Amino acid sequence: MSLEQLIDSGRIWRYESRTSRQNSLQTSEPALALYDNEIRQDGPEPASEAAPPAELATGYPLLDRVLTDRGWPCSGVTELLYTNDGIGELSLLLPALRTLSRGQRWIIWIAPPFQLNSIALAAEDIDVHNHIVLSPESDRDFWWACEEAIKSGACSAVLAWPDLSRERSNGRGQQSSQKAYACLRRLQIAAAQHKVACFLYRQNAQAAVDQGGSPSSLRLQLRPDTASGALMVEVLKQRGPRPHEPMSLKIPRPQPFHYSRLSDLKHLLQTAAV
């Protein structure tokens, strides 16, 4: 994708798979990519002793009203079940990421399905200087990275994407389901103890193999409403009562951004460059 196309798209994802991203790392990594497999060495070091937020509003009053914590759980796992990529599942978290990015702790992305577009994040008023992207190569490494990130005491949020092929690579659905439940429970306990918001993105096919429910604090089902363009959000599980009907949320999508002056573009590139 050329620089002009990247600027005009305004997308959070750069729509490049992890496989192609790993291949590009062997040659030359685009300067606009957010952190990938390494921690930024220049710039301020976030202070790990800073207190985590006590509340984390979703940015959508209708959703805040029905959630037990009046926002995202700050000390637990939130499972976001979605049908396919690009329905607004990441845009749903942009208001929370905007809040968290102003803190002094890291926001850690583990195994995202595409490369992040740091310019689009910066255009959404999200500080891109305290983000880390990790790309574990195995199922075991994935769950280990999630748990260690939560226990580190240095991050305010963890966003993670379990890979379906990794979870079912052994061909034994029952064992994979039991393992996923055990790993989720460990994450939930760790997040509660260390006061970290953990967001786990899972496609419906992954969640379908679960047996015995979910140990997470909050579980939401996300579906697109093609007629209205809204995102349908259903609360499947939370502490306390849950609404019986799904909610329709208008999720603002990142818009293409244009700059009339070259200085504006240079400023944004300097802000988002890594």
Separate helix tally? 10
Distance between the termini: 18 Å
Q: How many beta-strand runs?
A: 10
Structural class: alpha/beta
Q: Helix amount, in percent?
A: 25-40%
- CA radius of gyration is 18 Å
- Helix and strand run: HEHHEHEEHEHEHHEHEEEH
Describe the main β-sheet briefly. 8 strands, mixed
- Strand order in the sheet with the most strands: 5-3-6-7-2-8-9-10
**Shape category:** globular
Strand content: 15-25%
Which residues sit in consecutive blocks of at least 5 with pLDDT less than 50?
A: 18-48, 171-175, 258-262
Mean pLDDT: 76
What attributes characterize this protein structure?
alpha/beta, 32% helix, single chain, 274 residues, 10 helices
